[in-house]
Amino acid sequence: MGKRIARKAGIPFVDLDQKIVEETGMSITDFFAINGENVFRQTETQMLRTISNTEANVISTGGGTPCFNDNIEWMNENGTTVYLKLPPRALLKRLSGKEGTSRPLLKGKNEEQILDFIIMKLSEREKFYEQANLIIDVQNMNPKLVLDLLITKLQSK
Question: How far is CA 61 from the centre of its chain?
Fold first, then answer.
């Protein structure tokens, strides 16, 4: 969704995980395995805060980014944050296949374990996600409708 918003708005798109990969020369999975979650979260925070806030960007973050090192506060102070809200089963569907199994925190888990993990993480993270400037429940929305709604809401801010 971030790429689509950036393209439609004519501004750069930054995928925070991709930026970490480029800067460290390691996949997120390898970085996590070698350095652990604490070092990953510190690196993630440093990378987030090096992205230029003097020009408009659309930044895609991982699900944990807002939950560590006061990142949600920093993001709210330096831009407009958006939480595209989905229930656990819808998130599971999006994470099935290669996308989910390549994520370090989901590695080696079966579908039931991933669903339990999603439910647990959402309960931990919701208090951070709910601090976003825009919260949109996208469960029954197609991507074009979500994009149009986001553009409309962002333009009115």
Answer: 3
pLDDT of residue 154: 80
Q: Give the CATH number for residue 91.
A: 3.40.50.300
What is the CB neighbour count within 10 angstroms for residue 58? 23
- Which residue segment(s) compose the domain that 28 sits in? 2-149
Query: By CB neighbour count within 10 A (0-12 exposed, 13-18 middle, 19+ buried), where does 4 fall?
Result: middle
Q: What is the pTM of this model?
A: 0.86
Tens digit of each residue's pLDDT (9 = 90 or more) over 82-129: 999 999 999 998 877 655 556 777 888 888 999 999 999 999 999 999
Q: How far is CA 148 from the centre of its chain?
A: 20
Residue 57 lies in a domain: yes
In a domain, 156, yes or no: no
